[in-house]
Write a structure and sequence with these properties.
The complex is a heterodimer of chains A (304) and B (305). Chain A has 304 residues and is an all-alpha fold. Chain A has helices at 6-51, 53-56, 94-130, 132-147, 150-161, 165-175, 178-192, 195-202, 207-243, 255-264, 271-298. Classes of the chains: A mainly alpha (304), B mainly alpha (305).
């Protein structure tokens, strides 16, 4: 081979432009990742402020200060420096209540996601691995559950169980599993046929060992990504239930029930409803950004 | 085509059966109707008498059968609160919910179709980036907060629109836009990826090679084909759409099924809750079936799969 032929030249050219496209894609991935890292930083701040609430909250979240009731944020005309984000209808400090309120959302979000991920992954694995009737039954349950709007199901169950923190975790945990089950089943179906699983089976591994040693490790990144994104969904639903008065009960501060109480006073005191909502928005935003970055980082091909 | 229809109908039967089980179990397995009906200080005999009266001392499958055979005829029992049949109460509230759902869908499409197409055609331009940013933010904003913010701005501050109520077109604007804004991000993403995919197809090259103007290539050939996945996904997500409508209703005091359900939960009026859950689920299942059939009719590839 002396000089490269036309075709070879064309191939080299294609490879070059491919390489530059790949470099561009990598760069974009890094950019998104940078967003993800920034988001993770903000999330750490939110989690830390909720965890250290007693240390950093400027006031007692339940402390009533009737002299300063409905006082606007500090930068407004009638605002006081004492209450940075203003106060509610009985003069409780909004900032303090928001810092404490984060505890409810984060605890419910993480606990409910742990429950639904566990149920969903186990059912998805069984459906995908065993197939046949097991698969049919589980898929039917998934279809029924997905037909129901999550909100409606949660409302109906809370109606019977009664509103409380624990009930809310149970409901959101029990209602959220189908999404995990569906994705895990699909992935298991594909992985089940791969050589290393067949090899494992040929070596005489049992079902449990095959599932948990060979298949599950390949699913971890997928599950982590879904779980992260689901935390945001659960936080929104939790705040909605609390907003309706069907979640965490007052006077315990939660972003949702603060928003619900603020609705009553929105004619004159916009801040009561605005700030807790902003807290929900910011938290779900950074969790979503982090989830997207995590997906790009762990598995760019994953489509959710 | 016939096999496809039969298959879809069979699936429908199974799903409806599952929904009836779920609706029954929510009240009868998770809770005890008598405990909810009688005052807490009622005596033990009183409980037993009521249990017998309502047929709750019979085996659970007998109770379930009774529930289903009545529900099929539209008999969900009387409301414990209003003394009217639950079925009638729920049915009366159905139209506002359906109108809200569809007007929300319309708003979402009006936002998502042009923006999604534009983002796809100018990939990685500032339009695309802006759309992505808005979509990411939109997905994180809770509908009920968005609704309240809209009320504060448009009703309280600017006094342009009514904060709640039903009947005139002004009443429709905020709820529809609120629901539409919640739905637009995911729709926009679907439109964008649909158009991107279609633009790489052979028939687009053919259309261009024929010398068609770019507007015609995009408007007629690309856009129409990109719509198929959008319709399918939106149709199948009707349940989620309705879920969004449920949340929107409670913010704007919209006189639909969701407001009724929340009121009934507060009043512990279980026949109404049960009836609302079953009817909403049936509505979703029916719409899903229709979408499946229509899409299967339009696109033979889906029928085969």
């Amino acid at each position: 081979m002396g000089t490269p032929t036309q075709i070879e030249l064309a191939e080299i050219g294609a490879a070059r432009s491919g390489a530059s496209a790949a470099r561009q894609a990598t760069w974009r991935r890094l950019l998104r990742l940078r967003w993800g890292v920034g988001a993770a930083g903000v999330l750490v701040l939110i989690v830390a402020s909720a965890a250290l609430a007693p240390l950093i909250a400027p006031h007692d979240p339940l402390g009533v200060d009737i002299r300063h009731r409905l006082s606007p944020p500090a930068w407004m005309d009638r605002g006081t420096a004492e209450h940075l984000l203003g106060t509610d209808q009985v003069g409780r400090d909004l900032l303090a209540r928001m810092i404490y309120g984060g505890r409810v959302s984060l605890v419910v979000g993480v606990a409910a996601v742990l429950i639904s991920a566990t149920i969903g992954v186990l059912l998805g694995l069984s459906a995908g691995y065993f197939g046949g009737n097991t698969d049919w039954t589980i898929m039917t349950i998934i279809n029924v559950m997905l037909t129901f709007p999550f909100v409606l199901l949660a409302l109906a169950v809370i109606a019977v169980l009664g509103p409380s923190l624990i009930n809310m975790i149970i409901v959101l945990g029990a209602a959220g599993w189908p999404i995990y089950a569906r994705v895990v089943r699909a992935e298991t179906l594909a992985i089940r046929e791969r050589e290393f699983v067949l090899a494992g089976r040929a070596l005489g591994m049992g079902h449990l060992r095959l599932i948990f040693r060979q298949i599950v490790p390949n699913l971890v990144s997928t599950i982590v990504v879904i779980a992260t994104l689901q935390v945001a969904q659960v936080i929104i639903l939790e705040s909605f239930l609390s907003f309706l008065g069907l979640g965490v009960q007052p006077p315990t501060p939660a972003w949702g029930n603060m928003l619900g109480e603020g609705r009553v006073y929105m004619l004159n005191s916009w801040w009561i409803a605005t700030f807790p909502g902003l807290a929900i928005f910011l938290t779900t935003l950074v969790i979503n950004l982090m989830g997207n970055a995590l997906r790009d980082w762990l598995d760019p091909h994953l489509k959710l | 085509m016939r096999r496809y229809v039969v298959g879809q109908l069979a699936q429908l039967v199974v799903v409806v059966f599952g929904i009836s089980l779920l609706a029954f179990a929510i009240l009868h397995v998770l809770g005890d109707p008598v405990l909810l009906l009688l005052p807490q200080n009622a005596g033990k005999e009183e409980f037993e008498r009521y249990r017998h009266l309502l047929g709750l001392d019979r085996p659970i499958y007998v109770q379930y059968w009774k529930f289903v055979s009545r529900a099929v005829l539209g008999d969900f029992g009387k409301s414990w609160y209003a003394d009217t049949p639950a079925f009638k109460l729920v049915l009366e509230r159905m139209p506002p919910t359906i109108y809200l759902t569809f007007s929300g869908l319309l708003v979402a499409l009006l936002i998502a179709l042009p923006l999604g197409t534009l983002a796809a055609l100018r990939r990685h331009s500032w339009v695309d980036t802006l759309c992505t940013a808005v979509a990411v933010a939109g997905q994180a904003a809770p509908i009920f907060w968005l609704g309240i913010m809209m009320i504060i701005v448009f009703s309280v501050r600017l006094r342009l629109l009514p904060a709640s109520g039903y009947g005139t077109w002004q009443n429709f604007l905020m709820p529809a836009f609120c629901l539409g804004a919640a739905l637009a991000p995911i729709t926009m993403r679907l439109v964008r990826s649909g158009v991107i995919e279609v633009m790489n197809m052979e028939f687009i090259k053919t259309a261009r090679a024929k010398g068609l103007a770019e507007g015609r290539v995009v408007g007629k050939h690309a856009f129409r084909n990109a719509c198929i996945p959008v319709i399918t996904v939106l149709g199948l997500q009707f349940g989620q759409l309705l879920g969004g409508a449920i949340i929107t209703e409670t913010v704007f005091a919209w006189p639909g099924v969701a407001t009724l359900t929340v009121e009934s939960i507060r009043n512990q009026d279980f026949p109404v809750v049960q009836c609302a859950v079953v009817l909403l689920a049936l509505l979703i299942v029916t719409v899903n079936l229709l979408v499946d059939l229509v899409v299967g009719f339009i696109d033979p590839r889906i029928r085969a799969a």
